[in-house]
């Protein structure tokens, strides 16, 4: 019987099986970030446990760094600076590689890892960040873990894991214009639930997935954790190898037999299969407080629990389009890459956002994305339209204290989580593609980007 | 890690699906780089009518008199979804929660529980409902939950069970395989040299 892509990576990393059923799985790449990096490294130092292979451990500054231009270690988050300085000290002491606040290559972990060629097809990669699954776009087995597991991986080079189930989600047919990877992810989660992928590694397949560029694949895999999947993965192909070849930490050529075999065999059986007609998808937007509460942009708000309707301030039966918004955010590990910014800028070019939108931010996923966007003049389009143009970081994907949206704001956001309070106490978040964010910012209300007339 | 054996406590219900770790401990409540000082921020968005001033919301279940000193929380499905922050488990444990019973848990959260000696028990939703405010006893060795004269059996994987029962440290356990790991790594370095990196200046 054929093996799935997941099976092949799992088998290639299985160091030992324990009698209890868990396997020791070798970990090829580890990332830390400043929110938890200091605690993990200091805890290891206190226990007298050195980092097993420091050359394969990286730390980034992304979660709570200031994104205003001219930034340093100071952050708007009360007490935030200590997370940065302590992580820096601990990273230097441990001998791991640090992408620091003012480094040329600073950025969100899941944006800079591919940019640097640190994630590679067929590797295992972990980080104490749930959106580590983003990096499965490169055919890596990449997943989020807690701090204790990060220490475990750093100290031993392996993790103890029960073998997850396998699921294939096939997006058949092509996407219609204006419909994106974000909409694919939200459609999947809205149909099969925020817990729908629990216990599984999800391989994304089908014509619409193959047609996605690497950045779109990252957006799709990013949301696997919102589906409760351990990881999302896309089989590497020519686009994958072309993206990575020659990047700083990547091989110059991908000519090992291991890489050529990173596909699910034709006869491979998955524990679960889901098929979605990609050609029937529309731009999606969330209406509630879980990513599963998402609907096509031309649909009406369905009936939820009283709690959800009270928080979000929308009634069942009303159209989601036309809901007034107060703020707009383009950024996060989901949608902050160059192609995301290009598509949003194409809608905004020569226009102004509605005066009722009091805060509008673009936060590029990395300083490299920022430079590339500026080289194309995208920053000028965004600022002329009324968006602020920032340095890279996780920014207002979540509220850490410090900078926030105005109390009571309803936001349209290219992020991944519309949880109660995620972007601040009482903030009502609607997640969607960068196109929907741009169109909504122009209209001052949730709007369909397919109806925007571009110049 | 403190071993887990039996836990007896009233089952305090928070029967909402998809309770996320941002709600369990908001980012803004993670104020120090350590693992402590978090209990005060547990469920801050729901527990306080004014989180900054720490004014308790009497309607929230953990503020009710019957919930005081509880060791057991009952939750909805996909409990602990969202951010991987282990602070959610540290906050629950520091508050005094020793077990959570829910129809399902988000995977990263569940693993974080096991690594910190907090017992995650999965039982069907109708059973969880039946346990509300009952005096519940969880017997990990026998994998049973009992209340009001009834007993239910729950599943847990063998390794997680052993680690919780014996209070084992996962890293210590794995380091016993140090020689096996070293041998595997040497062979892998020959087979997949591209995986291994040199430290850069």
Topology:
The complex is a heterodimer of chains A (455) and B (201).
Chain A lengths: L4 H9 E4 L5 E4 L2 E5 L3 H10 L10 E4 L19 H15 L2 E3 L9 H8 L7 E4 L13 E4 L2 H10 L1 E4 L3 E8 L8 H12 L7 E6 L1 H4 L3 H9 L8 E3 L4 H7 L12 H4 L11 E6 L6 E3 L7 E3 L9 H7 L14 E4 L7 H11 L10 E4 L4 H9 L2 H8 L2 E2 L20 E4 L14 E4 L2 H10 L12
Helix pairs in contact in A: 2-3, 2-5, 6-8, 12-14, 12-15
Chain B lengths: L5 E9 L6 H4 L19 H4 E3 L4 E2 L15 E4 L11 H9 L3 E4 L4 H9 L3 E4 L2 H6 L4 E5 L4 E4 L2 E4 L4 H9 L3 H6 L2 H14 L10
Parallel strand pairs in B: 1-4, 4-5, 5-6
Antiparallel strand pairs in B: 1-7, 2-3, 7-8, 8-9
The largest sheet of chain A, given as strand count, sense and whether it forms a barrel, is: 5 strands, parallel
**How many beta-strand segments of chain B?**
9
Number of helices of chain A: 15
CATH names the topology of chain B as: Aconitase, domain 4
Query: What is the mean predicted local confidence, pLDDT of chain B?
Result: 95
Sketch the major β-sheet of chain B.
Answer: 7 strands, mixed
Query: What share of the residues of chain B lie within helices?
Result: 25-40%
Derived structural class of chain B = alpha/beta
Question: Quick one: CATH class of chain B?
Answer: Alpha Beta
User: Separation of termini of chain A?
Assistant: 54 Å
Strand order of the largest sheet of chain B: 6-5-4-1-7-8-9
The CATH C-level name of the largest domain in chain A is Alpha Beta
**Overall geometry of chain A:** globular
Distance between the termini of chain B: 38 Å
Strands of chain A, count: 19
